[in-house]
Each structure stands twice: as C-alpha cells, then as structure tokens.
Specification:
Length: 335
C-alpha cells in the first residue's frame, strides 16, 4: 500500500478555518486541531493538552494561540506552551504538543503527517482559471477505493441517480478509453451526446468530451466539455479519517458566464446535494454489507466486468503497484 502519511490531505475549506475558532479534525486516525496563528497562517496540532489530555479543539483561540478548555494552558502554533494560568512560566523553545506540516492551497487547508523529500505538493483541480466554484463537504463511512470507484463509475448513474444524471431506458453508444497519468489514471468518453438526466439538460448546451480521473492520494474528478470549453468539473478530495471513514471535499466548478457565481451556487448546491446523498447511501450500504460478509469469514472479493473501466487501476495505484491496464485501451459500450 502507498504510505498515505507522506501525502498532503485536505481537512477543511479555507473559509471554515476562521480566526479565533479551533477546528477538530481526524487524519488517518490522528486527532488534530486546526487554527490560525496571529498572522492568519493555518496550523495543525495534535488535539490534546499534555497536562490532562483534554481536547484543545474544545477550547478557544486567543491571539493566535489555542487555549485548553480544562485549565487554560495556552499553546502556540508550533506546539510551545506559552502560558499556564496561576504560575509564572519560564520561557522554553521545546514544544509540548506535536505540530504537523500545514498549508492553505486551492481553497483548502492541507496537512501532511510525515512529509519527506519525495512528498508531492497538494494535488490541484484540473481547471482553476475562468471558473465559478464552491465547496460541498460530507463524511462517508467507506474506503478511498470504494468512494473513488463510485464517483468515477458512469454505469451506476442510471439506477442510483435515475432521472438526475442518466436513465436506463435512454442509453447511448459511446467509446471509452483508459489513459495513464503521471500520478493516476483517466477514462475518456467520446461520441456521447447530452445525457438524459436533469443535470445535463440544465448545465450543458452541448457536449464534445467527458472525462473521469483518479489521482493519488485521493482525488476523483469528473469533467464535461463542450464547444466553448468547460461545462462542469467536479473535483472530490477523499481524505481518510480512518480506514473506513472519509471526509469528502467536493469542488463544483462551472465556466464563468452571464449568471453570477453566487446565483449558480444557490441552485447547484441543492441539486448536487441530492446526488451526494444518493451516493453516500449506496456507499455506506455497500461498505456495511462487505464488512458483514468479512466478519462471517465469507468471500468478499470483487467481480469486475469490462465496464469497470478504472476499478482495477485505482486499486493498483492505492497499493503502490504498476498499472496493468494498457494505456489507450478502448471499449465500445452503452452508457
């Protein structure tokens, strides 16, 4: 398996991390508290006071330092204790709380538990210019593999999202091809017209190409393009709170146009909220079912078909293995 601790993972949107308020998060089983220091920079500390292990995230931020809710001990963004109420504290440069690498990029707050010389930068969305965008977040009880396969699988949309994205009675012949990326894998679809669901009819005037891609350590993207360029790009960062629980940050981006971004957001947030809830429900049902069979000691292996275009590649990437699907492999199917 790849060492997820050496990658950057987003834990919150930059807007969520307001000054004066600590934010509790968990990354790969490690409880963290996020805060902004006196200069407004994001910081991440282990979420416990060393005195009696009270969660620092339940306290408050004063002048860029987090204050323990139990006895009021205060800690700087680097983990040094700067004050103990009731006593004069000698100056010390020794941190008492472990601090983690933290930065803000692409509208998100990122943390890396164990950065090294080979740690790649935070993975960015495919399109950043000339777009209106907003974030949607949720927590889902499943694995990175399950969520990524679901997000990039066009063949579940006829049933889980029937009428919203596609309809089983109105499939189209398409050609799909799989392509290797430097840090992931991508499926490209051609010869597909507008989908039969509500989202396509509202958001797309035309379609020329669509793509679904996965990039390490956990970015899944769906991109639709027409004659005028980008129609829609949804970028979903899948952050592992634990082996079976994810925090998802979905960035919904559309090409800048006549309608102001805030007005599009009012409508699209409601629309995509339905889609995300539908995916969350089927993912958690599936994950719970897999767990039940595993606990019973029964076979829980996956049976892939040729329509599972990216499934095996996603599993190989997460396992740190070479991709076995040929670059440029094609299939004609009904989507």
């Amino acid at each position: 398996m790849i060492e997820l601790r050496r990658y950057w993972h987003p834990l919150a949107t930059a807007a969520e991390l307001a000054r004066g308020k600590p934010l509790a998060r968990t990354l790969l089983g490690v409880p963290l508290v996020l805060l902004r220091d006196a200069s407004g920079q994001a910081a991440a500390l282990q979420d416990r006071c060393p005195h009696r292990h009270a969660p620092l995230s339940r306290g408050r931020v004063r002048n860029g330092e987090v204050e323990c809710p139990y006895h009021g001990w205060r800690f700087a963004a680097d983990g040094r204790c700067t004050g103990v109420p009731g006593m004069e504290l000698p100056a010390s440069n020794k941190p008492l709380v472990h601090a983690f690498a933290c930065q803000v990029a692409h509208g998100l707050v990122w943390v890396c538990l164990a950065p090294d010389a080979a740690t790649p930068p935070p993975v960015m969305p495919a399109v950043t210019d000339n777009v209106d965008y907003f974030f949607m977040t949720d927590v889902v009880n499943c694995t990175i593999q399950q969520a990524a396969e679901n997000f990039l699988d066009g063949f579940h949309t006829h049933f889980v999202h029937a009428g919203w994205i596609r309809r089983d009675s109105k499939r189209q012949p398409v050609r799909a091809s799989v392509h290797h990326l430097t840090d992931g894998v991508e499926a490209r679809y051609s010869n597909e017209g507008l989908q039969s669901g509500l989202i396509s009819s509202l958001l797309e005037g035309d379609r020329q190409t669509s793509m679904g891609r996965f990039r390490l350590p956990g970015l899944a993207e769906i991109e639709y393009r027409g004659q005028r360029g980008l129609n829609l790009l949804i970028s979903a960062w899948l952050t592992p709170e634990s082996d079976q629980r994810l925090r998802i940050h979905a960035r919904v981006a559309t090409r800048c146009g006549i309608l102001p971004g805030w007005l599009k957001q009012l409508f699209l947030r409601q629309l995509f909220g339905v889609i995300l809830r539908q995916d969350k429900r089927i993912l958690e049902q599936t994950s719970q079912n897999v767990g039940g069979f595993q606990e019973a000691g029964l076979d829980a292996l996956l049976l892939d078909s040729r329509l599972d275009l990216l499934a095996s590649s996603i599993r190989q990437l997460l396992a740190g293995e070479m991709l076995t699907v040929e670059d440029g492999w094609m299939i004609d199917c009904w989507l």
